[in-house]
Amino acid sequence: MSAVAAKVGGIPIRVDEVDAREAALRAGSAGTLPRAGTLPRAGTLPRAGTSEGRQLRRWLTQLLATERVVAAEAAAFSVTSERAPAEDELLPDASARFDIGSVAAAALADPLARALFARVTAAVEVSDDEVADYHARNPLRFAVRPRAEGWRPARAAAPALNEVRAVIVDHLLAAARRRAFRVWLDARRAALVELAPGYEHPGDPRQPDNTHRH
Q1: Strand order in 11-14's β-sheet?
Q2: 195 and 201 in contact (C-beta within 8 Å)?
Q3: Dihedral angle at the C-alpha atoms of 9, 37, 55, 178, nearest 10 degrees?
Q4: d(Cα 57, Cα 64) in Å, to the nearest integer?
Q5: Other C-beta atoms within 10 Å of 170: how many?
Q6: Are 175 and 134 in contact (CB under 8 A)?
């Protein structure tokens, strides 16, 4: 029987599961991985056995563990993938993916994870003060850019708050939901996941392949 890379709620993730996920990633097997764009292309992956290769395996272990956490928490909340929001709705661009973190972004390729996201963040709100403060600090953020005339650069006029309130609310609410889900997911992983030596978090400064130095 394969050695254990991690446990989620006491249930093991075995090294051969990490091996299989790595092999699928290197082979570009679409059926076993999150959608294109959430993971690096096979041709850009680090060589196996190198420091960077071991970091990739740690990252894949985090993804496998997160998928297990999502499944367990969805069951606890009686959440199903039915009527899950679209992936682009939760993660519309690279900035949103960076904001929530690469592992969570990859996990949200699964409709069940997106349905859980909706359940966990359903009560998140933004206040009128937050909306007004954002507009005051970013008056041109949602301004309509006029067409340039001749050689003169076009200058946008700052719209009034009531003209852009709805779009600011949507922008702030999406960011607040991503933040709330990231914090919640980090807490659940901390409570449920145990990592074996060699499969520590890639960013753990105690593991030998961590390259982030001060």
Answers
A1: 11-14, 4-8, 193-195
A2: yes
A3: -50
A4: 10
A5: 11
A6: no
Structure tokens at 186: 């980090």
Total residue length of the chain? 214
- Which residues 6+ apart lie within 8 Å of 35 measured at CB? 87, 109
Per-residue pLDDT of the chain (214 residues; tens, 9 = 90+): 789 999 999 999 999 999 999 999 988 754 555 554 455 556 678 888 899 999 999 999 999 999 999 999 999 999 999 999 999 999 999 999 999 999 999 999 999 999 999 999 999 999 999 999 999 999 988 887 766 565 555 566 788 899 999 999 999 999 999 999 999 999 999 999 999 999 999 988 888 888 654 4
